[in-house]
Amino acid sequence: MTGFNRAEYRPIEILMVEDNPGDIRLTVEALKEGKVRNRMQTVSDGEEALAFLRRQGPYAEAPRPDLVLLDLNLPKKTGQEVLAEIKEDPDLRRIPVVILTASEAEADIIKTYNLHANCYITKPVDLERFIEVVKSIEDFWLTVVMLPPK
Q: Would you list the DSSP string of 47-66?
């Protein structure tokens, strides 16, 4: 029996919440090389992320993400504050949130899991390793996991 392959039907919508343009560029490049069709939108701070997810203001026509890649160190609202609001909102809480951050602090890891993050990944400093990590996120979240329906 073969599994349902979402990639054959529509692109996977990804929202990346990241304020570092270099990390955004690397992630886009790594996902371009991947096997799953995807469309990635980016926002650079916590307030923008919530406006995008709630389709407010300039994001009224924004696609609903299938997956959120969330940095913790963001301007305006931290990643933890954004995560808490996502998981408290009945309309958003089923969207998987992958924490992709430079922090290796045990307190950050514990707090984000307590806020119901779906996983916590530390960004490697090495360029090649960073690309490998992004590809592994794609392999797992976009090909193995069944994402919730819209």
A: HHHHHHHHT-GGGTTPPPPS
